[in-house]
Amino acid sequence: MRYAVLVCGPAGAGKSTFSTSLLTHLHTSKRTGHLINLDPAAETESFEYQPTIDIRHLISLEDVMDELGYGPNGGLVYCFEYLLQNMDWLEEELGDFDNDYLIIDCPGQIELYTHHPLLPALVQNLSRLGLRTCGVYLIESQFMEDRYKFFSGVMSAMSAMVNLEIPWINLMSKMDLVSGTSADPARGRNGIRKRKDVARYLDPDPLLIVGAEQETSNPRFHALNQAIVQLIEDHPLVSFLPLDLTSEESLESVLNHIDFTMQYGEEEEPKEPADMDDGDFPEME
Ligand SMILES: Nc1nc2c(ncn2[C@@H]2O[C@H](COP(=O)(O)OP(=O)(O)OP(=O)(O)O)[C@@H](O)[C@H]2O)c(=O)[nH]1
Ligand SMILES: [Mg+2]
């Protein structure tokens, strides 16, 4: 069985940084993982690890923009359509990795996740190729500084979950920027850059919108805000795991959740003593 972690989320949420850190963490845990770059606009120098598979070897955004005269967003859609028409390329590139994690770093155009049919089609193709896929959706901790922005992040995560229909985990990235004390000069506008206030955001409390509405005392959006509160109460699909890349425990906890969500290793047979190699139990040697 092969496993794919589809790393999605808005621009700058920390997808590429998380992909690299997860790969490093897998390596230190003596597990195999490979990086797949699906961002046709990625800068080569932005990767700490050379991607094992790179969409830019099939098609690059720069070429599409130069040769077809598209802008960056239309160009991206063209690149994904081209990828879907050339799934045999991906199939060949995937080769026969077995029991490995393939970490797929996606582009940051939000519309790709919320309403385009391109990623759902890609996920179906991955499933056809025998990959079990888990979506990991990142929004960054700064979103918690503005409640309206935060709820737009919650709604985008929800649309992506509904659009892609795969096992799913939402992460609140860049938690190292959330400080332990309210006296921190960098604390946010809502004063929520305090760890003790974060729980209401990790498990979104829709009443936070009501609080924001009272603060701004703008009744214009009352009916809309009520509808959003109702939607989140009726469909409590979204909650976030905190991701702090400065902490190994945080990464380990996220990896455990991904393993559990994808039922990693469930189909593996226990090794027979005869199958074991030198080095399987280094601590006993
Ligand atoms: N403090 C902090 N900064 C981070 C973290 N993760 C990423 N960043 C910074 O956030 C910026 C964007 O990170 P990327 O990993 O490139 O984000 P991305 O989601 O891949 O961005 P796009 O591919 O452009 O959509 C960079 O300047 C990173 O250094 C984090 O955990 N903590
Ligand atoms: Mg990126």
Automatic annotation (TrEMBL):
TM regions (residue ranges): none
Region (Disordered): 263-285
Keyword annotations from UniProtKB, A to Z: ATP-binding, GTP-binding, Hydrolase, Nucleotide-binding
Biased composition (Acidic residues): 265-285
Record carries keyword tRNA-binding: no
An MF annotation (GO) of this entry: ATP binding
InterPro entries, per the entry: Gpn, Gpn3, P-loop_NTPase
Keyword Hydrolase listed: yes
Pfam families: ATP_bind_1 (PF03029)
Summary of the function given for this chain in its UniProt record: Small GTPase required for proper nuclear import of RNA polymerase II and III (RNAPII and RNAPIII). May act at an RNAP assembly step prior to nuclear import.
Subunit structure as annotated in this protein's UniProt entry: Heterodimers with GPN1 or GPN2. Binds to RNA polymerase II (RNAPII).
PANTHER family on file: GPN-LOOP GTPASE 3, XPA-BINDING PROTEIN 1-RELATED
The family this protein is said to belong to: Belongs to the GPN-loop GTPase family.
Name listed for the protein in its UniProt record: GPN-loop GTPase 3
